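User: Structure tokens for this complex, please. No commentary.
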Amino acid sequence: MTDRFTHVQVVERPISPDDAIKAVSTVIAGAVNLFLGVVRNHHDGKAVLFLEYEAFRAMAEKQLQRIAAEIHERWPVERVWMEHRVGRLEIGEISVIVCVSAAHRAESLAACRYGIERIKQDLPVWKKEHYADGAVWIGEAGSPSDVAPQEHGYWTDHPS
Amino acid sequence: MSEAQTTIAVTVLCFASIRENLGVDSVRWEGPTGTRVGDLRAILATRYPALRALLSGCRMAMNQEFVTDDQPLQAGAEVAIIPPISGG
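Assistant:
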């Protein structure tokens, strides 16, 4: 039994982990996993003042729908919630959230990880880092960038 | 055969570094039917030499789906230049 609930959105407002956890929680799910990408204050030894995210919104939301569908195909998860924020973000603010519920932890852990990895691969979203002496679009050849993970995250594993 | 069948027009959407370099959100391109995505990439590099290196590292999307360079452009399509992504 699964309700295959999915919520995906590109947002300009702050992301609320509480809203996500409430939305994916259901009496048939014994596990909830949460991943947050958070704006970090440094990159390659440089102090980051703030970030700007830009998205190709329509395509990004389509890609998020696809990733959610892939998750539902691969694991018996109950509910999937994914949002990416755009606009100016300050240090410590949440840029991306993936929240998944399932009957058991193995599925929710795997699905949550899969969700954020696919977002890093295929979501048309760009980050510009602002420093005291300028700004750089991250990800391009020649930029300080790269594919190194940009986020801090943690797992929340409710006993199942 | 009408002109509409021998030429097509597409809208090219620009984001992030591409958008800032060109100073516009989109450009319109008209050319012969049968032109492929990769041809358009080369045409853009010729028209905007400053973008040449950047363009070679970009993915392309047509009507909101990633496409390979061998795909023919569809009439009226929305083609997006996707610089290396850095979401998350």
